[in-house]
Amino acid sequence: MATWMILKRGTAILLGTALIGFGINYLNIANNLAEGGVTGLSILIKLALNVNPGLSVILINIPLFVLGYMFLGARDMAWTIYGTLCLSGALWLFDGYRLPMDDLLLTAAYAGACMGLGLGVIFRNGGTTGGVDIIARIVNKRFGIGMGVSMFYADLVVMGISLIYLTQAQVMYTLVAVFIGARVVDVVQQGAYRAKAVTVVSECEEKIAEGIMKELNRGVTIMKSMGGYTRKERGFLYVVCSRSQIVRVKNLIYERDPRAFVTVTDVHEVIGEGFRRA
């Protein structure tokens, strides 16, 4: 891996964990809200025993590091250990920063946004913060069970343990924060930009392609296809456009071929000419 890529990934993980560490101390712990996974356990230990989360995160992850090394290998664990150490440092650094709030729903929204944004930046740059992620990767590798499923059940276990110390209302608001965080992670990972992919089956593919390229300045891929029932050869077009252009694309298609078969799907991220660069 190139040096600048290593620096970019390392810096992104550092910034992401800093945001998580700040949010956990400033919002979650200040308002008795838990969290999923190992981070959630560290919060409960802080609330119950007043142990710094930065310390408990490291202690809980040590046996997980050993398991990860045994089943995943040293290369896969290097960035995981780095991310965990950064998270531990951030939790330690921001310990004592507190913002008690009267509105727990608003607190859950802020806490979820901080966690989601931090994790999204980390995941988008190929990093991880250890914890349940290690277990999920091992289970996926050994048994073929999806990582999302494993992490979901692990979070449920932590939420169940939270009921020993927290009220049902606090656990419910924690679930709200976790849900918001998951949605923010998706947005950051996949990119906030949304485009539309249009596929067209038509006998006037040349006219449609020419119109899209000239009037909308979008590239078009033209392929040949054959109808399964009619066995007739027809043109097959694929074009990606912005959401603001989709109406113009459909109008342009039906002006040239009212009988065209068109499908439109959402595209979460586009990299290439005319869109975002890699």
* Total E-strand runs: 4
Work out the helix count: 10
The proportion of residues forming helix, as a percent range, comes to 55-70%
* Low-confidence parts: none
Which geometry do the CA atoms define? elongated
Structural class: alpha+beta
Task: Let me know the average pLDDT.
Answer: 84
Write out the strand line-up for the largest beta sheet, numbering strands in chain order: 2-3-1-4
Order of helices and strands: HHHHHHHHEHEEHE
Distance between the termini: 16 Å
Beta-strand percent range:
5-15%
Largest sheet: 4 strands, antiparallel
Radius of gyration equals 24 Å
What can you tell me about this protein's structure?
With 278 residues, this protein is α+β, with helices and mostly antiparallel strands. The protein has 10 helices and 4 strands. The protein has a 4-stranded antiparallel sheet with strand order 2-3-1-4, with helices on one face. A hairpin with a 6-residue loop joins strand 2 (221-226) and strand 3. Helix 9 (205-215) packs antiparallel against helix 10.
